[in-house]
Predict the 3D structure of the following.
Amino acid sequence: MNMKAVLFYKPGLIKYEETNIPEIKAGEVLIKIETALTCGTDVKTYKRGHPLLIKTVPSGFGHEFAGIVFQAGKDVKDFKVGDRVVAANSAPCQNCYYCKIGEHNLCENLDLLNGAFADYIKIPELITRQNLLHIPEHLSFEEAAFTEPLANVVLGIEKTDIKPGQTVGIVGLGPIGLMFVRLAKLKGARVIAAGRNPLKLKLAKEFGLADEVINLLEVSDPQKAFFDLTPEGKGLDVAVEAVGLPELWEKVIDLVRKGGTVNLFGGCKAGSAITLDTRRIHYDGIKIISPFHHTPRHFRESLRLISEGLVDVKKLITHKMHISEIENAIQLHNNGEAIKIALKP
Ligand SMILES: [Zn+2]
Ligand SMILES: [Zn+2]
């Protein structure tokens, strides 16, 4: 049996074409995709490939999705044909050193699932068992598809340990930065969101409920713009980089007060290096963290936040289109005109 899917051949070359519907084995399920979301990672992958996501070509493409169980393999107990479900793009192996010490996001055998821009996707047994969830009745497929990207931010926020009343600055307002704004507000922080794109600055207020926004194109000294908004002008309690550029990592480190926390959340290209003054870490006592990915616990917490209406993810969908328009979708992201695009088969 055939289906249509977006396949990645090499950087800059993807095709929407006929391919086989994956066959499932015991413990696996086949999902009929209802909604897939575009993500910054897809755009990066399109431009330069991806060491973890693309291992052989042609490869499936896209990793944020929700749909309906179309086939359930032998031994699958919790899901039946017709169930509305959302899956994460990975699940920990539960066997490696990191899984055994409870650091599941650092699992050495994370096998990232790709291929959401298609009619169907096969969910491997590990994910079916740990990271496939039923979608509550009142949630749409579009909303549920946000569970994976938001789960990354749920883990990122937990590691940051924000206290109520603290002043938190977030630099970079793509979907991840915007979700960071929202979750920092839920922690009771006063949040300053900084970016350059008017659409994203508007969403920082309307979706993230940011207290202040800084348009980085309009200020000559971004550090001063942040400091002026902090108690006694000492600097932020917490600064978050949500872009993934080494030069920005260096700048964000200088936004926190003594004893502050810096969360360098945007992953940079492999081999990137930064320079920093050791005084900041030692005499100023700042803490630098850079958390990655999510775990089954964060994936569940993410779906709960969406389900209870605490994160109104619908506001982040700026476009809806057919999967065949994938190249147009990537272009819109590149131009900064899109936040999230909901693709339908
Ligand atoms: Zn993503
Ligand atoms: Zn593991």
User: Anything to note?
Assistant: Residues 92-93, 95-96, 98-99, 107-109 surround zinc ion (ligand 2) (CB under 6 Å). The CA atoms of residues 223 and 251 lie 8 Å apart. The chain has two domains: 2-146+311-344, 151-289.
